Amino acid sequence: MKKMLFIMNPFAGVKRANRHLADILLTFTQAGYEVITHMTLGRGDATAVAREKGKDVDLVVCCGGDGTLNETITGLLSAGADTPIGYIPAGSTNDFASSLKLPTNILKAAQTIVEGEPVSYDVGRFGNRYFSYVASFGAFTRSSYATPQNVKNALGHTAYVLSGITELSQIRNEHVKMEIDGQVVEGDFLFGAICNSTSVGGILTLDPKQVDMGDGLFEILLVRAPENLGEIHECIQALQSQKYNCAMLTFRSAQKVRIFADPEMPWTLDGEKEDGHETVEVENLHHAIRLMQKKDEDA
Predict the structure, then answer these.
(1) What is the three-state SS of 164-213?
(2) Neighbouring C-beta atoms of residue 196, cutoff 10 Å
(3) How many Cα neighbours within 13 Å face the side chain of 46?
(4) What dihedral do alpha carbons 119, 71, 62, 160 form, nearest 10°?
(5) Contact criterion met (CB below 8 Å) for 118 and 36
(6) Coil, strand or helix: which one is 132?
């Protein structure tokens, strides 16, 4: 009998997956899996169990938000495991799932996992940490990890938008230098993101035609600090139209980035806080994970 490690965050999102737990497990059992179930108890728990048991099963399924997925991927990669991953998105924003058009219905997502095939996708390495879809700094970055879980549960995606608005008064420009595949970009930026996703924080959406989550490249978006209302308008218009060829934005694709910044400048990796670095290297790990997906859902 095939073995599955099922990792579930019972506190994710509005806890909507909890009431479907029996049906989820029934779906997996009917598909011929012996299911080892682990409920996470706190931060880092999914990483620990994926690292310990991920090599010994045929499939690892993660049910939770982007942070739970990040931990599961981190555990598998740190253990050197090539085990396929199934993902049931049950968080507040689910950017990774949105980019891949994975089912948002809990039971449909479980069915997709047992009927799907493993598809290879890239993962980012930020120093000694991993991220599945984004490493970002600046505006709205803090709201992704500073919003209390009970507020996320009550308001879902709206919590991020509200927290981002209240953060506007605290936004400061960040002076950052990046070496992007040998080319240097330097300046004062309001926001920056190294992405492998079309959705960032549920607020910013990149052009799907310019994002391939398995091409070995990141999309890098840097938003310069506007100095007047005209530049603010230019910035908003470029982001809304997804046409990034303006003076306020830098948009590049790259496999590797070296970053020089204020060591006090915080980052977020897949919505989880990462402390600042004076220098850090970010690398795209091509086809580092295999995600269970139906062919008609391939990104």
Answers:
(1) HHHHHHHCCCEEEEEEECCEEEEEEEEEEEEECCCEECCCEECCHHHCCC
(2) 24
(3) 24
(4) -100
(5) no
(6) coil
Residue 290, both tokens: 């295999």
Structure tokens belonging to residue 34: 């012996």
Each residue's pLDDT tens digit, 141-151:
554 444 444 44
Task: Give the chain's length.
Answer: 299
User: What is the Cα gyration radius of the chain?
Assistant: 19
Residue 200: beta bridge partners?
204
Q: Which one from 179, 272, 274, 278 is the annotated catalytic residue? A: 272
- Joined tokens for residue 121: 């996708």
Closest CA to 89 of 20, 27, 36, 41: 20
Burial class from Cβ neighbours inside 10 Å (0-12, 13-18, 19+) for residue 214 reads middle
Tell me if 85 sits within 8 A of 290, measured CB to CB. Answer: yes
| Residues 9/41, Cβ–Cβ less than 8 Å | no
Mean pLDDT over 124-142 rounds to 86
225-266 pLDDT, tens digit per residue, is 777 778 777 877 777 777 777 788 888 899 999 999 999 999
Q: Which two tokens stand for residue 73?
A: 């991927």
Q: Which residue has tokens 């218009």?
A: 237
Q: What residues does 285 pair with on adjacent strands?
A: 123
Take residue 44 and report the two structure tokens written for it. Answer: 């880092």
Max Cα separation, the chain? 64
Closest CA to 11 of 75, 90, 77: 90
Annotated catalytic residue 272: yes
All structural domains of the chain, each given as residue ranges with its CATH number in brackets, are: 2-122+289-297 (3.40.50.10330), 131-286 (2.60.200.40)
Single-letter code of the amino acid located at 132: S
